[in-house]
Design brief:
By secondary structure, the chain is α/β, with parallel strands linked by helices. Among the domains are: 1-153, Up-down Bundle (Ferritin), CATH 1.20.1260.30; 626-729; 779-808, no CATH class. It has 29 helices and 18 strands. The strands form 5 sheets. A 9-stranded mixed sheet has the order 3-2-1-6-7-9-8-10-13, with helices on both faces. A 3-stranded antiparallel sheet has the order 14-16-15. It has a two-stranded antiparallel sheet with strand order 4-5. Strand 17 (593-600) and strand 18 form a beta hairpin. The protein is globular, with a radius of gyration of 35 Å. Residues 629-656 form a coiled coil. Residues 135-444 form the DNA methylase adenine-specific domain. This is site-specific DNA-methyltransferase (adenine-specific). Pfam families: HsdM_N, N6_Mtase.
């Protein structure tokens, strides 16, 4: 049975636990990723002639497994595995597996490396079949590990990784997916880090493209080279070295030019000019636009990108917001770039997205096509769209989609995006700071003085809820009534606002229509999902599914289609993704498996196995019960209700007679033995009849609880056995219906229905807020205050403080 992606990830991350504590995350990532790399190339290329990657004899993962437990395991890995692989494939800066300072010495090193190798013996990590979904799982696993490493590495060492979400945005906006591509199509990243951004662009292409990357840090360049291979791009060329001082990709004496260039360079690099002849750059990068400041390298990287693009090239670069408005030499460069027409767009991103810094950044999009005819720059302020993820922020799926859709369509969206004419930019001295052109601030909620003085809700505030009244025009008349010109009063009690909204015929019709709208999509989608077969591509499945859902809800009133889209993507990440990968590997098989908890000895051998029952990932037990054993579950629920009722009655009895003079006051512990003992003690005592009655009642309730508990346990055991026995009898059609209808689409239906509740709740809260704000006019407040003051003065006189009252007057 195939392993779930989430379980694969967790098992790989467990490999990191074997090293954690001995070194920084930025170091132990090298060991874990090298092992993943060796496992992959061993499965895929070992023994294959003319393979793009050479696995020398004796240097495969199997050979590494043979070294487990050996006293010189670290030294042997270096000599027999790492060195031959590095020499055969020109891999540099490989980690030292015999470094006692990082891995420990003696027995500690042996155990640590042995356990780490064992992690990669997982049967799910078998890439020998060379299936596309296997590569896909591997690529995602690598991304998972890189994200975790970057998070743990902290500010100073997390720069080797560009967040996958930002990489996806760049990959989709540079336009590589909009044209026909081939191996002649070139993509370049001058500061490629571990290569994730390059690979995201390659993924968006229609066919394999040629990848080029340069990375200053040698160890990270090695990671990038391995990353290319792990993602089935073994021909990618990754070079170590300082791109600005010593660019490796040249065409004679000039820079090599590319179709697409993307980059996430180090922010505000203060040492960029080291080794660079700024005044007489041999590559002419600063001739046309000007030289960047010696201590501010952002434009140095951007100009390198511009110079590295073909005349029809497109590119994108992640830079700090300062590049948009800083003056001096940078202001001059910015003006020249705008006048040249090279800047196609700018996308402002949320703060705290990147692992090396918390400052907000932007994506500067470069497009040399039709540059002279460009009359404006498309600006997007996407700074408000994100989710919290531990110490960092992350773009959600809906944020990515909204950015890309808006950028591709070049549509003006209030408070989010607009096309800004170059003439307007020139009037602002070529300052591109986004707030100058897009007011993304939430408008201040204005106070109406007349409303506060004379009472009544201003009509202007009610008019601002026009999107609701457009759908339910009669609802406005139901909720409000005229007070005076331009002011209204609530026509219903405040406590009844939500009910008045939800039960209004127009809102009820809206809900019914939205339910029917989802049902239509659900009907079309269910058949497509049930047609999934082994070998399907889960990423393609979710892409098509999500796009169809987004399109289905486009332009629907009162609801944001991107919110609906996010519900699907969240459920995909939480549950549906694992299910689809199981179906891709094994088909529609609902096979329960035992839950075995293993306890190990210090040497890693199994000491004890504990059976914790069974589970079925594709068709969980609750689905089976709801479909086939509802009556049995209802009977158990009734028993549980009886048990809860008896428990409450018992607790109430103990509470009632547990006080200082209560019958249970002297009990150190109330249980069957102590209660029975006390009954024997007072047997025949006529003065203790009331106590005996209470104790007898306690014993009766306790016996009832014991009986109910036994009956519940027996019924649950019978149900558990019946459900388990039902799995082998399921037809494929039943499995499909359980998964698609009862699990996937039912969960999505519930989430989308929750959006309807959110709409009614939002309107309720706003109406109630306005009603509360203007509920009491100033004269009414003064009258109420006067009444209260009179009452206080009367109390003071009665208490003998008449003089104090007189003095106050």
């Amino acid at each position: 049975m195939a392993i779930k992606k989430s379980e694969l990830y967790s098992s790989l991350w467990a490999g990191c636990d074997e090293l954690r504590g001995g070194m920084d995350a930025s170091q132990y990532k090298d060991y874990v990723l090298v092992l993943l790399f060796i496992k992959y190339i061993s499965d895929k290329y070992a023994g294959q002639p003319y393979a793009p990657i050479v696995v020398p004899s004796g240097a495969s993962f199997k050979d590494m497994v043979a070294l487990k437990g050996k006293s010189d395991i670290g030294d042997q890995i270096n000599k027999k595995i790492i060195a031959p692989l590095a020499d055969a494939n020109k891999l540099s800066d490989m980690p030292d597996f015999n470094d006692a300072g990082k891995l420990g010495s003696g027995k500690e090193m042996v155990e640590r490396l042995t356990n780490l190798i064992a992690i990669f013996e997982n049967k799910a990590l078998d890439f020998s079949k060379n299936r596309a979904d296997g590569d896909d799982i591997l690529g995602d696993a690598y991304e998972y590990l890189m994200r975790h490493f970057a998070t743990e590495s902290g500010k100073s060492k997390g720069q080797f990784y560009t967040p996958a979400e930002v990489s996806t945005v760049i990959a989709q906006i540079v336009g590589i997916g909009e044209v026909a591509t081939s191996a002649d199509t070139t993509v370049y990243d001058p500061t490629c880090g571990s290569g994730s951004l390059l690979l995201k662009v390659a993924y968006e292409a229609h066919s394999p493209v040629s990848l080029y990357g340069q990375e200053k840090d040698g160890a990270t360049a090695g990671l990038a080279r391995m990353n290319m291979i792990l993602h089935n791009n073994p021909t990618a060329i990754i070079e170590p070295g300082n791109t600005l001082a010593d660019p490796k990709f040249k065409d004679g004496a000039a820079l090599k030019i590319f179709d697409y260039v993307v980059a996430n360079p180090p922010f505000s690099d203060k040492r960029w000019s080291t080794g660079v002849d700024v005044e007489d750059d041999p590559f002419g990068r600063f001739d046309t636009f000007g030289a960047p400041p010696a201590k501010q390298g952002d434009y140095a990287y951007l100009l390198h990108i511009v110079r590295s693009l073909k005349s029809t090239g497109q590119g994108a670069c992640i830079l700090p917001h300062g590049v948009l408005f800083r003056g001096g030499a940078e202001g001059e460069i910015r003006q020249n770039l705008v006048r040249k027409g090279y800047i196609k767009g700018i996308i402002g991103l949320p703060a705290n997205l990147f692992y090396g810094t918390g400052i907000p950044a932007c994506i500067v999009v470069i497009d040399k096509r039709d540059a002279q005819a460009r009359k404006g720059i498309f600006l997007i302020d996407a700074s408000a769209g994100f989710m919290k993820d531990g110490p960092k922020n992350r773009l959600r799926a809906q944020d990515i989609h909204r950015i890309v859709d808006t950028f591709k369509r070049k549509i003006d969206v209030p408070k989010y995006a607009r096309m800004v004419p170059v003439a307007e930019i020139a009037k602002n001295d070529f300052n591109l700071n986004l707030p100058r052109y897009i007011d993304s601030q939430t408008p201040e909620d204005m106070q109406d003085i007349a409303g506060h003085l004379l009472g009544g809700i201003p009509v202007a505030d009610i008019d601002a809820l026009e999107r609701y009244w457009a759908v339910c025009p009669g609802l406005r008349q139901t909720l409000f009534q005229p007070r005076r010109e331009n002011y209204l009063d609530l026509a219903v009690d405040k406590a009844a606002i939500k009910l008045a909204i939800y039960e209004h015929p127009e809102f009820a019709a809206f809900i019914t229509g939205m339910n029917a709208h989802f049902a239509a999509w659900r009907g079309d989608t269910a058949d497509k999902l049930k047609a999934l077969a082994p070998g399907c591509h889960p990423k393609q499945v979710i892409a098509e599914l999500a796009e169809s859902l987004l399109a289905h809800y486009a332009d629907r009133p009162l609801i944001d289609a991107y919110d609906i889209y996010q519900h699907l993507m969240d459920y995909w990440a939480e549950t549906m993704q694992d299910d689809c990968y199981l179906i891709a590997a094994d088909g529609w098989k609902a096979e329960p498996s035992r839950i075995i908890m293993v306890r190990k000895n210090k040497d890693g051998s199994i000491r004890k196995e504990i059976d914790r029952g069974w589970t079925c990932d594709l068709v969980p037990k609750p689905l089976m019960i709801a479909r086939f054993f509802a009556a049995e579950q209802e009977a158990i629920d009734e028993l549980v209700e009886e048990y809860d009722s008896a428990t409450a009655e018992l607790e109430e009895l103990e509470e009632e007679h547990g006080g200082e003079d209560g019958f249970f006051a002297e009990f150190e512990k109330i249980n069957k033995a102590t209660v029975s003992r006390r009954l024997k003690e007072i047997k025949g005592d006529r003065t203790a009849k009331d106590e005996a009655k209470v104790l007898d009642q306690w014993l009766k309730l306790d016996a009832e609880l014991t009986s109910l508990g036994r009956r519940i346990a027996e019924a649950e055991a019978e149900l558990d056995a019946a459900v388990l026995a039902k799995y082998p009898l399921l037809s494929k059609a039943e499995v499909k219906s359980l998964v698609v209808d009862d699990k996937w689409l039912a969960a999505l239906d519930a989430d989308i229905h929750g959006e309807m509740d959110r709409i009614s709740q939002a309107l309720t809260e706003r109406v109630k807020f306005l009603a509360d704000r203007y509920a009491t006019s100033l004269p009414e407040m003064e009258l109420h205050l006067g009444s209260l003051s009179a009452k206080v003065e009367a109390h003071l006189r009665r208490m003998g403080f008449a003089r104090l009252v007189a003095a106050k007057a």
